[in-house]
């Protein structure tokens, strides 16, 4: 009996300190794992999301040659997506908080999948721009829905890991796309690359509708797992209109960090194939392996970044220290990206880019988790929407600027310099605006 009590006491010490209203968890009962099935659905949604947006970047050299796009026109096509993505984040974030993740996510996936398939009918820079606009509106729903779902299905001690896992789907999508898209395009034509990848969203939707409910309403979740999920739940509050979130420093800490670092990821996503083509001579049939190497390591970075802060919290670190220490490590790991523009060796460049993209994904997993750390669950979708909008605006600006810069100078040096320092500056802003990651207090 003494031995049993000792085991229970040790297990209890591993749990985070809960607020006064927290529900007790019987640590002698095995906690279930159904929540990880929900995480798997989020992972596959994010994978499909990134496959759909990556298709254009992979086909860009071929399409630019066939349709005589200039660098500026290609920049405008990307800007159309970014503008819609920014607008879509505000719309979709509000939809997720108003209608819930089940309905909201379903709507977003249908919209972006249809828009992805619509690219096959495009025949000019203008019509591609319209298709990208529709894709941007729909794809903006993925992260507000996914972060909201994690805040509902996971306690704080597991959220960064869950976000890191589903966020790694972005890299899996970026791995699958350079393997599948050239194969489809070279054998069946580029139009079928858009049609086949776009159809994946409708397959995912069937699984989502068959599986997802809120944890308190789900028939397959055990009481022990539900108690564990709700072990640090906050006091319920009324839904907060997104306009009332703007005055809070916590909102701006997240939003400005997204504005400064999301554009770097967009630069990687849309210009890496072109960089590898122009700087290292890689054609469509040879570009797959370097891109796969880059995004495999990015995948590891996403999971490792999410795991590290959760690990530190379980070791007794405060949420504030664990999140920011992990983000600092990631920011420092991005710095060497500057030397990419100085090397003529393909695999040295791939290694430096891989380190930077892995660090970005680890950073992103923790940055998203800050929202669930600082805001009540029924405001998470809106805050992620606001931050995503700012990140997309930054991506829109860098897309247009990159197009003009490369058209005039054909040099990637300034872009890699900006990429190397943005994360440290963003972390400094987070520290100034949210020094202790205090929860927002609704007025």
Give the CATH level 1 class: Mainly Alpha
Give the CA-CA distance, first to last residue: 49 Å
SSE series: HHHHHHHHHHHHHHHH
Strand content: under 5%
Q: Would you tell me which CATH topology applies?
A: Growth Hormone, Chain: A
Count of individual helical segments = 16
* Count of separate structural domains: 1
State the low-pLDDT regions, or none. 1-29
Q: How big is the Rg? A: 22 Å
Q: What's the shape?
A: globular
Q: Give a count of the beta strands, DSSP E runs of length 2 or more.
A: 0
Most strands sheet: none
CATH superfamily grouping = MFS general substrate transporter like domains
Residue share in helices?
over 70%
Name given to the CATH architecture: Up-down Bundle
Keywords: Membrane, Transmembrane, Transmembrane helix
Domain Major facilitator superfamily (MFS) profile: 38-438
Membrane topology: Multi-pass membrane protein
Protein name: MFS transporter
List keywords for this structure.
MFS; MFS_trans_sf; 0% strand; disordered N terminus; 77% helix; transmembrane helix; Growth Hormone, Chain: A; mainly alpha; 443 residues
Short description:
The chain has 443 residues and is mainly α. It has helices spanning 2-14, 34-67, 71-99, 101-118, 125-139, 142-153, 156-167, 169-188, 190-211, 223-229, 249-280, 288-314, 319-334, 346-374, 377-409, 413-433.
How would you describe this protein?
This protein has 443 residues and is mainly alpha-helical. The protein has one domain: Up-down Bundle (Growth Hormone, Chain: A), CATH 1.20.1250. 77% of the residues lie in helices and 0% in strands. It has 16 helices and no strands. α12 runs parallel beside α14 (346-374). The longest helix is centred in the N-terminal third of the chain and has 34 residues, at 34-67. The termini are far apart. Residues 1-29 have low confidence and may be disordered. Pfam families: MFS_1. It is a multi-pass membrane protein. The chain crosses the membrane at residues 72-93, 105-128, 161-186, 192-210, 252-272, 292-313, 325-341, 383-406, 412-434.
């Amino acid at each position: 009996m003494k031995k049993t009590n000792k085991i229970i006491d040790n297990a209890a010490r591993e749990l985070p300190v809960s607020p006064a209203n927290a529900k007790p968890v019987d640590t002698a009962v095995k906690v279930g794992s159904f929540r990880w099935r929900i995480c798997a659905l989020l992972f596959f949604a994010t994978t499909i999301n990134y496959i759909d947006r990556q298709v254009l970047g992979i086909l860009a050299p071929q399409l630019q040659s066939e349709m005589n796009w200039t660098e500026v026109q290609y920049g405008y096509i990307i800007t159309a997506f970014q503008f819609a993505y920014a607008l879509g984040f505000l719309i979709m974030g509000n939809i997720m908080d108003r209608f819930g993740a089940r309905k909201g996510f379903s709507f977003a996936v249908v919209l972006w999948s249809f828009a992805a398939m619509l690219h096959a009918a495009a025949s000019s820079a203008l019509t591609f721009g319209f298709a990208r606009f529709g894709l941007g509106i729909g794809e903006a729903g993925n992260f507000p829905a996914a972060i909201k779902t994690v805040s509902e299905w996971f306690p704080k001690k597991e959220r960064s890991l869950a976000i890191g896992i589903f966020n790694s789907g972005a890299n899996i999508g970026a791995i699958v796309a350079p393997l599948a898209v050239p194969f489809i395009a070279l054998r069946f034509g580029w139009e079928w690359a858009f049609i086949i990848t776009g159809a994946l969203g409708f397959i995912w939707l069937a699984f989502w509708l068959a599986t997802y409910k809120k944890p308190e309403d789900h028939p397959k979740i055990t009481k022990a797992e539900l108690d564990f999920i709700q072990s640090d739940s906050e006091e319920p509050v009324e839904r907060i209109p997104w306009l009332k979130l703007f005055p809070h420093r916590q909102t701006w800490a997240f939003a400005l960090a997204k504005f400064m670092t999301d554009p770097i990821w967009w630069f990687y996503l849309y210009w890496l194939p072109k960089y590898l083509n122009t700087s290292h001579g890689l054609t469509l049939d040879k570009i797959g392996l370097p891109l796969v190497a880059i995004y495999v390591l990015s995948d590891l970075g996403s999971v490792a970044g999410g795991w590290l802060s959760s690990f530190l919290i379980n070791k007794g670190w405060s949420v504030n220290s664990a999140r920011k220490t992990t983000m600092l490590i990631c920011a420092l790991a991005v710095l060497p990206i500057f030397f990419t523009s100085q090397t003529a060796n393909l695999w040295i460049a791939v290694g430096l880019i891989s380190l930077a993209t892995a660090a970005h994904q680890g950073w992103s997993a923790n940055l998203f988790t800050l929202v669930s750390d600082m805001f009540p669950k029924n405001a998470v979708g809106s805050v992620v929407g606001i931050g995503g909008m700012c990140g997309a605006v930054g991506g829109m600006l860098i897309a247009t600027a990159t197009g003009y810069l490369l058209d005039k100078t054909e040099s990637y040096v300034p872009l890699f310099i900006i990429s190397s320092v943005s994360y440290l500056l963003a972390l400094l802003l987070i520290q100034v605006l949210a020094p202790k990651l205090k929860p927002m207090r609704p007025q």
